[in-house]
Amino acid sequence: MRLVFAGTPEPAVVALEKLIASDHEVVAVLTRPDARRGRGRTLHPSPVKALALEHGIEVLTPTTLKRNEEVKARLQELAPDAIPVVAYGSLIPENYLGIPTHGWVNLHFSQLPQWRGAAPVQAGILHGDEYSGATTFRIDAGLDTGDIICQVSEPIRSTDTADDLLTRLAYSGADLLVRTMDELAAGTATLTPQEGEASYAPKITKDDARINWTAPAIEIDRAIRAYTPGPGAWTMLDGQRVKVGPVVVDDCLSPTSPGHVTVSKNTVTVGTGTTPVVLQMIQPPGKKMMVAADWARGLHSAEGVVFE
Q1: Residue 19, by phi and psi: left (phi above 0), alpha (psi -120 to 50) or beta?
Q2: How many distinct structural domains can be found in the chain?
Q3: 172 is in an annotated binding site
Q4: Is 305 part of any domain?
Q5: Do 246 and 162 contact (CB within 8 A), yes or no?
C-alpha cells in the first residue's frame, strides 16, 4: 500500500523504520515543525523527520492541519491507501479523515478503551496496572474512540520507568502496525468497536510530578517511575526544586516522618505515609543526576533535611 506516515518523537521512529523495511511504500511523512532546544536554542528536526530525510522521503511539517488547504491538497495528491499515525502530536481535523482509502490508523500505547489520551504509558504505571499494551485503531472524530483493528499485551514490570515500558511498546507496537497494514492491504482486517468502560490519561504537567511524601511508599514508587524521565519527579529542599530518580520500597524499614531524610552508611532513606523508601538517584539544582549516597556525603549534616 501507499502510506503517508504521521509521527514526531523517538518512539515513532521504530514504527517508521519497520514500515520502510516492509512491503509497503512510504511516500511521505507528516511531522511537527523543527523545534528549538539546547543552550543555543537552535532548530532541530523531529526524530521522524531526520529518518525520513535519510531515506529521501518527502516531509510535510505544518504548524497545524486545521484550515491548512495546502497540506490537505498535497495529501490528496499523494493518494495514500492509509496514513499510520504514531505520536504525531496534533489533532487530525475531521475533514482530513476521508483522504486515505483505509483511513488514518493510530498506534496507541495502551489496550483501548483503557487509558485514552496523551499519557497512557505513565497512567498504567501510576495506577499499578499489571499489563499495558498497544492498539491500532481507525481514527474518528472522538478522542481515541475509533474501531480497534489489532492489539498486543505487554506486562508492566515492578521496576519499569515510563521510558522502559515505552521502549518495549515502541518495538512491539511497530510490529503490530506493520501487521495492521498487511491485513488492511489483504482485506483481512477486522474492525471492532471499543467495548467496556473507558479510562483517561491526560497530559502530564510538571506540577503533577511533584512527590507527595505523605502518600504510601508504593504510590510514591509508582509515581516516580511513571514520571521518569519526563517531566521528572521532583521535590523541594530548602526552597529549591530537586529531581528524584526511582526508589526502592523496603517494608522492613521503621517508619519516619514523611519527607524526612535519613543517612546511614551508604543508604539514604526518605519517610513516606507508610514505610520509608530508599533513595537511589538525585539531581540537585544545577547539577547532573547523581548517586544519592554521594549527594548525602556532600551535606554538612543530614540532620534536619526534609523534602517537601
Answers
A1: alpha
A2: 2
A3: no
A4: no
A5: no
Which residue in 93, 89, 3 sits closest to 47, CA to CA?
Answer: 89
The model carries a pTM of 0.94
Q: What is the average pLDDT score of the chain?
A: 95
How do residues 66-94 score in pLDDT, each as one tens digit?
A: 989 999 999 999 999 999 999 999 999 99
Q: Name the residue type at position 91.
A: L
pLDDT over 70 at 226, yes or no = yes
Is 113 labeled as ligand-binding? yes
Look at residue 298 in the predicted model and tell me its pLDDT: 81
**Residues 104 and 247 grouped into a single domain:** no
69 domain residue, yes or no? yes
Is 216 marked as a binding-site residue?
no
Measured distance between the N- and C-terminal CA atoms of the chain, rounded to whole angstroms: 55
Helix (H) or strand (E) holding 14: helix 10-21
Cell of 145: 474512540
pLDDT tens digits for range 54-66: 999 999 999 999 9
Supply the DSSP symbol for 142.
S
SS3 content of the chain, % helix, strand, coil (to 5): 25, 25, 45
Whole-number Cα distances in Å, 82 to 7, 29, 63, 137:
14, 12, 22, 12
The H or E element spanning position 49 is helix 47-54
> What is the DSSP secondary structure assignment for residue 156, as one 8-state letter?
P
Grid cell digits, residue 245: 530518580
Q: Is residue 110 annotated as involved in ligand binding?
A: yes
Query: How far apart are the C-alpha atoms of 274 and 256, rounded to whole Å?
Result: 8
Q: Would residue 308 count as lying in a domain?
A: no
